[in-house]
Predict the 3D structure of the following.
Amino acid sequence: MAKLWEGRASKAVDAAAEDFNASIRVDSRMARQDIRGSMAHAAMLGARGIIPQADADRILAGLEGILADLESGALAIDMGAEDIHTFVEGELTRRVGEAGKRLHTARSRNDQVAVDVRLYLRDEVEAVRSLLRGVIAALAGQAEAHAETVMPGYTHLQRAQPISFGHQLLAYAWMFRRDIGRLNDAAARMNESPLGAGALAGTTYPIDRCATADALGFDRPCANSLDAVSDRDFAIELAAALALVMTHVSRLAEELILWSSWEFGFIALDDAYTTGSSIMPQKKNSDMAELMRGKTGRVYGNLMALLTVMKGLPLAYNKDMQEDKEAIFDSFDTVKACLGILAPMLATMAVRPENMRRAAAQGFINATDLADYLAKKGVPFRSAYKTVGRIVADCIREGEVLETLPLARYQEYDPVFAEDLYQAIDLEVCMRTRLSEGGAAPDSVRAQIARLKEEFQL
Ligand code: ARG
């Protein structure tokens, strides 16, 4: 296919080099955005009298036709083109003739590609935002059903204190909520228009950058033409925000994997989100959750790739920057795929309260409450802590638990102990009375759900 830059060279580019140079396989997905950007540019060129209005009209009609034909499938993108910009301009000129050759007046592929990527990523952010909302809805739904389901909360993967399963799930909802905030912040900074920056220095034509920015839904034009065509920090910021999304996805995935093991037995993932083994007939494997954990690696890698591509690049555009799209597109593709499965996987998982309860009853997770019991009766907390530590150590040695150790034995450690200690260390009571704001009590869980429901209109 003809090159946009034919003229200077005395011979064709080597076939392998041409293939190496091409980006169509990656950037063809920006066809809509490329056409939208060109339409805004052409309309502005006509309005400012930079090209004849009749030509602008022909260009606009031609671009509309291309868009419609791409959408209906009547037109296929030629994968032999160098990039999507070449394809669209070539197709336009094929359709409307001479007028099409005026489209690139006062524009460069450098500002064009920067516009396309920003428009494309804007839609991708919206898609991820809505998928994250779906995950938050699934978490809130299960949390509502399990606001009172006691499970051991862990630190160091050691049973620590009683919480509800709902509280544990909501911890992830708040992480995903912050992820949405990070994506929104980055998207807001990205929303400035590079169009009109030209190759690097702006243009001598009397263009109207505010008009094109407006037409494309940007808040304003980028302030510096060099920065406009050289900047890819928006892609890096989004890649970083997506890396954090995957940090959260992978931690949740890891817990789902652990919880569905025979060792825990806290949940059973729905058969729709697990697989079997080709040799072991009894197996039910958490492949989807494991893949989410695994795919976190590529999303981190894409961030590193983008940072490294941009490091030390002189201003303004360098072809290195063509590498931005593969990385950031892959991050969005991967995150969307994970979140799309995570939400229904959470919504359909079966919870096993009996097993959580059994685990909660072992491991002395009410030891803090026993120390608090003494402290509330006037014993300094540090002394109470030591006393309970001795009780726990003796219980472990004797195969006893706090719930059944006789009162007389307790009083050997401290005469302050009375009959009401058993009420204070009841697991339900321990969980229910963690009423401090954001604590594990069911009322706190329900308050969190109400906040999330209001914010996300769940
Ligand atoms: N395919 C190129 C990219 O993705 C488009 C910009 C080309 N600009 C240039 N000066 N070669 O970066």
